[in-house]
Amino acid sequence: MPWVVGADGPTIEEVCSRFGLTEAELIAELDLVWCCGVHPFTPDSLMEVTVEDGRVWIRYADWFDRPLRLTPEEGLALVAAGAALLAVPGAEVDGPLARGLRKLADVLGIDPDGAVEVTLGTVSEGVLASLRDAVTVRRQVEIDYYVYGRDERTRRVVDPYAVFAAEGEWYLTAWCHLARAERRFRIDRIRSLEPLDRTFEAPDTAPVPEVFEPRDDDPRVVLELTPRARWVAEQYPMEAVDELGGGHVRVTLVVAETAWLERLLVRLGPDCRVVSGAEGVARTAAARILNRYGAG
To answer: How far apart are alpha carbons 167 and 98 in whole angstroms?
Structure first.
């Protein structure tokens, strides 16, 4: 498809010759392109194919207007998934998938046939072991915790209920005496901890992991996003998502912590316009960053 797009309307004969296809095979392949796109699979998020006067045009949706960029972690996950698929009986060990994976592995500097070791988070073994011991003997601990949303450190006493892994990170579910409620903590954000000489009674039922529930008095922020920033609407909970055409979208979201919003707006840069609820937030955050590094 990138070759057809770049050629801007090549003839059917040229495409068939380039890729070793018959005309019937090419038409069958093009019929699949109509199905390619991203959620919510509306016309603006699907690809378009035009076959007219013996020529072929493929037009990408706005989601596909730039090359795919993978992080090293995403590239490694792709290699691992592809290698698992190649292990299925009947897979072409020298086919297109295998060749593509070898190219990706070369870029990553890894052996595609090597074993992949999966690790969770960047957590001190001492902290993890101490928390597991505290859970087992039901001992309270005092933790020095970095609150990502507010960009601050706090010390708090907690009753550790459970240590578990989810989505590639280690978490602690506990009763927080500072918040006076159950909380879920990212263990890699615990800078230090101290076991106390006090025990606690564990709840009869397993605690439910904390889920953010917006309050009526939480501020609402309205943003307009370019096609490059549409991922925000899929990654974070939204109260409203309105299509503006051309891949642009207006979103309404609840923001409980200003520090989190600052990081998001600075990350998005010119791909985001604040409509209401966050005037001056990005400018203030950017000024602090420049002052921090002596560039203000």
So the answer is: 28
Give the span between the Cα atoms of 263 and 117, in whole angstroms.
Answer: 31
**pLDDT (tens digit per residue) in 237-281:** 778 888 898 889 999 988 877 777 888 888 888 898 889 888 777
Q: Please tell me the distance from the alpha carbon of residue 45 to that of residue 21, in angstroms, as a whole number.
A: 28
Q: Cα(first)–Cα(last) distance of the chain, in Å? A: 46
pTM listed for this prediction: 0.41
For residue 206, the one-letter residue type is A
Residue 253: CB atoms within 10 Å: 23
Q: Rounded distance, CA 122 to CA 128, Å? A: 11
The C-alpha R_g of the chain, in whole angstroms, comes to 26
Q: Does domain 125-199 have CATH number 3.90.1150.10?
A: no
Domain ranges of the chain: 2-64, 72-108, 125-199, 220-292
